[in-house]
Design brief:
Elements: H1 16-29, E1 31-35, H2 49-52, H3 57-65, H4 74-84, E2 88-94, H5 120-130, E3 134-140, H6 162-169, H7 174-190, E4 197-201, H8 212-215, H9 217-227, E5 232-233, E6 271-274, H10 292-304, E7 308-313, H11 323-339, E8 360-364, E9 369-373, E10 381-384, E11 404-406, E12 422-425
Parallel strand pairs: 1-2, 1-7, 2-3, 3-4, 4-5, 6-7
Antiparallel strand pairs: 8-9, 10-12, 11-12
Helix pairs in contact: 4-5, 4-11, 7-9
Bound molecules: 4-nitrophenyl 6-deoxy-alpha-L-galactopyranoside.
Length: 436
């Protein structure tokens, strides 16, 4: 999806400083909750199930007919997000399947017409705001249900030959779908108060694909910024050549090697989105859940490279977070309770702080504190290369207890140490923050 090098164009008048001000809360908060919820929670085998299994409208209809998330209580979700240390949330108002969790005027394919009969988006917005969590919407550009959305290579009805495409696309009209999409985004950004984030997903230009002309991306982003001037928007509208049509890049399900930059070497705002288990929608039988350690490293490593983590939960068809998600969030919250100061307001450490083996560094530019994350807890001595004279005091975060340090070889046989280094003298056993 890389665009060729070209001069950056602009659509709006915002300055770099004005953008930094608009992005301020987002770069400070670092940690958000992604929520993928829709009819696909019922088959419970991936949010792309309709595509993967080539399910027809009538095969998929039963999920609509029986959709009844009777345990949906977004106040619980918001409390769990907050306890985990998450500061913002992004809910799928509509995913690729086309089903709307909100009461849209422009479709009958919406939650208010299912047995639950509720505007689920409305309740989400109210509940998360009440907990002080910023609210965002994910809205799928792709739509496998809309009759005017042309069949393409990502469609659930995808086919092989040009003739087959032509046959299926007779009578489908992307101009009409474009209007639909714009109308729905307008509804979402008009009927629910101040919206902090918009996550549009996704573009795949090229043969049998779709991009900016199909979505009407320029018109769309203009409308978005007009309706919600402070909103923060992701980068999947296929408008990479415009500097200001998007706010941040979205490396998904992989780790970036270093802070992402544009062609001129400017650092970009970035957020990685990650799943607990691989699938975004609730997947009952998936056995590939990440460990707490892996999840914490995802968060710390993102901040250590100047980015955010949007960590996904796929609620069940009854509207709950299943026990594995609850456990994972709870464990992260335990860690955040003691270590949040090394996340909020933090970023990559300045270059004067050399990398330290088996650790990740985060840094708060305001307080000038450096956080050394002992990802692999070392045995008693940790050499900080070239740190002599740079550290006034060292302590653990969980209890503020002192960590002794010495600007000399901390051990008669410490061959890691060189002049100018600093040695931390750590307890041999990792101090435990948990109640046994
Ligand atoms: C998309 C969705 O298809 C997926 O279901 C989920 O919502 C995720 C957050 O976003 O997945 C993508 C989109 C774009 C790319 C990869 C996965 N991409 O451009 O490489």
């Amino acid at each position: 999806m890389q665009q060729p090098l070209q001069a950056q164009k602009k659509l709006f008048k915002e300055t770099t400083q004005q953008k930094a001000d608009r992005m301020q809360w987002w770069t400070n908060d670092r940690f958000g909750m992604f929520i993928h919820w829709g009819l696909y929670a019922m088959p419970a085998r991936h949010e792309w199930v309709r595509n993967a299994e080539r399910l027809t409208d009538s095969a998929y209809q039963k999920y609509f007919d029986y959709f009844n998330p009777d345990l949906y209580n977004p106040k619980d979700w918001a409390k769990m997000a907050k306890a985990a240390g998450m500061k913002y949330a992004v809910l799928t108002a509509k995913h690729h399947e086309g089903f709307c969790l909100f009461d849209s005027k422009f479709t009958e394919y919406k939650s208010t017409n299912t047995p639950i009969k509720k505007d689920l988006v409305k309740e989400y917005v109210d509940a998360f705001r009440a907990e002080g969590i910023k609210v965002g919407f994910y809205y799928s550009l792709i739509d496998w249900h809309h009759p005017d959305f042309t069949i393409d290579r990502n469609h659930s009805q995808r086919v092989n030959t040009p003739a087959e495409y032509e046959k299926l696309n007779k009578g489908r009209d992307m101009a009409k779908y474009r209007e639909y999409l714009k109308n729905q985004v307008r509804e979402l950004l008009t009927n629910y108060g101040k919206i902090d984030i918009l996550w549009l997903d996704f573009s795949y230009p090229g043969q049998n694909g779709k991009g900016k002309d199909d979505w009407g991306s320029i018109e769309l982003i203009k409308m978005v910024r007009q309706l919600q001037p402070q909103i923060i928007v992701n980068d999947r509208l296929d408008l990479k050549e415009y500097d200001d049509a998007w706010d941040f890049v979205t490396p998904e399900q992989y780790k970036v090697a270093s802070w992402p930059k544009d062609e001129k070497g400017n650092k970009l705002y970035w957020e990685t989105c990650q799943t607990f288990s691989g699938s975004w929608g609730y997947h009952r039988d998936e056995n590939t859940w990440k460990s707490t350690q892996q999840l914490l490293v995802l968060l710390i490593e993102s901040v250590s490279k100047g980015g955010n983590l949007l960590l996904n939960v796929g609620p069940t068809a009854r509207g709950m977070f299943d026990y594995r998600a609850q456990n994972a969030l709870g464990s992260m919250g335990e860690w955040m309770k003691f270590n949040a100061a090394s996340i909020y307001g933090c970023t990559e450490a300045p270059a004067e702080y050399n990398k330290i083996d088996q650790t990740l560094l985060t840094y708060n530019p305001k307080t000038k504190r450096l956080y050394v994350h002992l990802v692999d807890y070392p045995l008693s001595r940790l050499v900080l290369p070239g740190y002599e004279g740079k550290v006034k005091y060292a302590q653990f975060l969980h209890d503020n207890s002192e960590i002794k340090m010495t600007a000399s070889n901390g051990h008669w046989d410490n061959s890691d140490y060189k002049k100018g280094d600093l040695t931390l003298i750590l307890p041999v056993t990792k101090p435990n923050v948990e109640i046994p």
